[in-house]
Amino acid sequence: MSSKNKTILVTVGTTQFDDLVQCVTADQALQSMANLGYYRLVIQYGKGLRPSTISTKYEIEMICYDFKSSLQEDILQADLILSHAGAGTVMECLTLHRKLVAVINSKLMHNHQMELAVALQQRGHLYMVEQPQDLWIPELWEAIDQFDPLPHPAGDEYAFPRLLDEFCGFRNNSNSSKIQ
Amino acid sequence: MSYAFVAGCIAIVLFVRIVWVFRCIRRTKTNSKPLKTLVILGSGGHTTEILQLTKQLNRSYYVPLEYCRASTDTTSVMRLPDRHAVVHTIPRAREVGQSYATSLFSTIYALWHAFFLIAKIRPGLILCNGPGTVVPLCVAALFWRVVGWCPGQIVFVESYCRVQTLSLTGKLLYPWADLFVVHWEELHRQYPRSKLVESFVRRQKDK
């Protein structure tokens, strides 16, 4: 058993994902977390239900809140992030080089979130879980523990502005008519 | 002079305008003056993405820069880089998970609002990536553009989470957005008129 000093962050973004929250607070998942040395479980539950108290048997401390204006600090402090596969959270976690497990919400209408999770999993940037109930499988946690993500390349913040300037014609005539 | 004649004239003028606008849509623009820009905040992930995309925009070209949010979205405003930015509010067209039948009524209501809002703002450029909220605004912009009230050029950026298929909004806007941007090569191959931007993603071969 590894030392108990690791933190898990569970985040659902601006919507709700009660299935995920329920699954991670169930004993089956807590057992696996405890085995892998996690002692703190931070849950951002969004518009969903506030999770009820968890079993004290596993000596895991649970911290819950619905929203924060920025999750960055919590993401940086977490050793593992379990998240819905929303683009915002995924992007933030990958740019901060965190180990991310994207859990698919199969109840959503037209579940496109899976596309992103699949594409990023194929490229080795995250670990994908197809449904929250899978988090009760101890072997899955072993796999997550052993998963070593490939760092996501840094994005180019100027790529879109460049394209837009070019499209609007600002780049072309910037010499002839200076815009102040 | 009969009403039929007047109606006929209006129809011809409108038809010519529509043809003209659609000819312009696909061309690279030659703007020389700063463009009044309206950034539409989707909510949640959409807002994160559009703020990321517009973070490094040259503020001397895209000025004034105003925002628009859905009435149900309370978190987006807190995340704006500029606290004093003008933020307009519109009713939301479709909640995540809302059925298409009830969506119809809320869409008509949203469209009604959008017409007045766009007429009031008169944007030169509309930047959007968002969910249903943006469609009424873009329709309104197209209408006012045909009428000649404002330039209302539409730039749509498909969400980063779309790898294989376009969103419903994307499918609706693809034929007539001035600039249509996608993040993934997989999508770009399917929609050749789109532009590929690698703000967040690099090509797979660079891995």
Automatic annotation (TrEMBL), chain A:
Please name one Pfam family that this protein belongs to: Glyco_tran_28_C
What is its EC class? transferase
Q: What GO molecular-function term can you cite, just one? A: N-acetylglucosaminyldiphosphodolichol N-acetylglucosaminyltransferase activity
Query: Does the entry feature the keyword Glycosyltransferase, yes or no?
Result: yes
- The record places domain Glycosyl transferase family 28 C-terminal at 7-131
Q: In which broad location class does this protein mainly occur, judging by the first location in its UniProt entry?
A: endoplasmic reticulum
State the Gene Ontology BP annotations.
dolichol-linked oligosaccharide biosynthetic process
Tell me the SUPFAM superfamilies matching this sequence. UDP-Glycosyltransferase/glycogen phosphorylase (SSF53756)
Name of protein: UDP-N-acetylglucosamine transferase subunit ALG13
UniProtKB/TrEMBL annotation, chain B:
Q: Which topology term describes how it sits in the membrane? A: Single-pass membrane protein
Q: Which UniProt keywords apply?
A: Endoplasmic reticulum, Glycosyltransferase, Membrane, Transferase, Transmembrane, Transmembrane helix
Q: Name one Pfam family in it.
A: Alg14
Gene Ontology CC annotations of this record: UDP-N-acetylglucosamine transferase complex
Q: What is the first-listed, main subcellular location in coarse terms?
A: endoplasmic reticulum
GO BP terms: dolichol-linked oligosaccharide biosynthetic process
Q: Which GO terms describe its molecular function?
A: N-acetylglucosaminyldiphosphodolichol N-acetylglucosaminyltransferase activity
So which domain of life are we looking at? Answer: Eukaryota
Q: Does the keyword Transferase apply?
A: yes
> Subcellular location, in the record's words?
Endoplasmic reticulum membrane
Return the similarity comment: Belongs to the ALG14 family.
Q: What is this protein called?
A: UDP-N-acetylglucosamine transferase subunit ALG14
